[in-house]
Design brief:
By secondary structure, the chain is mainly α. Helix content is 65%, strand content 0%.
């Protein structure tokens, strides 16, 4: 088998293991879509409060909420963590 074929097969095996619940290979699940407005509303915060508390620009937050832009990369990861563990994020951001 060629090196390319071996890499493709290894990737397929890793994907199958992940689908079965094995996260030991370091694969992270980051949702493709984060409902930013729902995350904010579940915390009972205004747009300005949410942006200030978690370090987003107000304009960016507004763009995400109206669907003009979508969070990518680290922002999507942070929003996912905020949705699941907002207190942990607040503690981490308050630490010096």
């Amino acid at each position: 088998m060629t090196k390319a074929g071996e890499k493709i097969l290894a990737g397929a095996r890793q994907a199958l293991a992940y689908a079965r619940g094995d996260t030991s290979k370091g694969v992270a699940h980051v949702p493709v879509h984060v409902d930013v407005k729902s995350v904010r509303e579940n915390l009972g915060l205004t747009q300005a409060q949410f942006a200030a508390r978690f370090g987003f620009s107000l304009r960016t937050l507004q763009q995400w909420e109206i669907g003009r832009r979508m969070p990518h990369g680290p922002a999507r990861i942070l929003l996912t963590i905020i949705a699941r563990e907002p207190r942990a994020v607040r503690r981490a951001l308050a630490a010096e």
